[in-house]
Amino acid sequence: MLEFLFGRGRPKPRVENGRVFAVHENSPISDQRKMADVEDQAANVSAEEQIHFTTIQTLQNDILSAKSMKQQLMEDIEKMLTAKGQLCSLIIEKQRKIASLDSDSTTLAQVISLSLFLITLELIQHEKISLSSKLIEKRTGSNPRNIEDKWKSMIWYITTSSMLSFV
């Protein structure tokens, strides 16, 4: 009966444990399996190609996104560097202003100190003149107002001329 199915000259199928296995390459069962295997392989290759294509597209999109992010970061860095430069300029300007004010403060303190010294000196000299006048008045019994006025005008001239030279 197997000869009827497979014909003469063809190898007979193998039978194991009551199961029939086709072994001939030209048998319709083997051709169908080959076609199914080829179709499965083609479907697998197509699926793999689609996966690879999708992966490539995703990676290309990621690259474009990374380039865009890099460009944005470069612009942000440029803005930050510009702002940093402006801040450094402002800091230097403020430091110069502080140094100038400190110098002015020192100069002003020196002028005030000198002015106080001159005023103190003038007061001492005025007191000296006053005491000298009183002493002369006691000795001679005369009014030395003319001498005191001359001394006052001379001290005023020296004090104002020295103060103007420092200012």
Count of alpha/pi helices: 3
Mean pLDDT: 79
The parts where pLDDT drops under 50 for at least 5 residues are 1-7
Question: How many beta strands in the DSSP annotation?
Answer: 2
How large is the share of residues in beta strands? under 5%
> Helical percent range?
over 70%
Strand ordering within the main sheet: 1-2
Main β sheet profile: 2 strands, antiparallel
Shape: rod-shaped
- Reading the helices and strands in chain order gives HEEHH
Amino-to-carboxy terminus distance = 137 Å
How many domains is the backbone divided into?
1
Radius of gyration: 58 Å
From the helix content, strand content and strand pairing, which structural class follows? mainly alpha
Spell out the key features of this protein.
167 residues, mainly alpha, two-stranded antiparallel sheet, 84% helix
Helices and strands in order:
Layout: H1 2-6, E1 14-16, E2 19-21, H2 28-140, H3 145-166
Antiparallel strand pairs: 1-2
Helix pairs in contact: 2-3
Task: Write up this protein.
This protein is mainly alpha-helical and 167 residues long. It has one domain. The chain has a two-stranded antiparallel sheet. The longest helix has 113 residues.
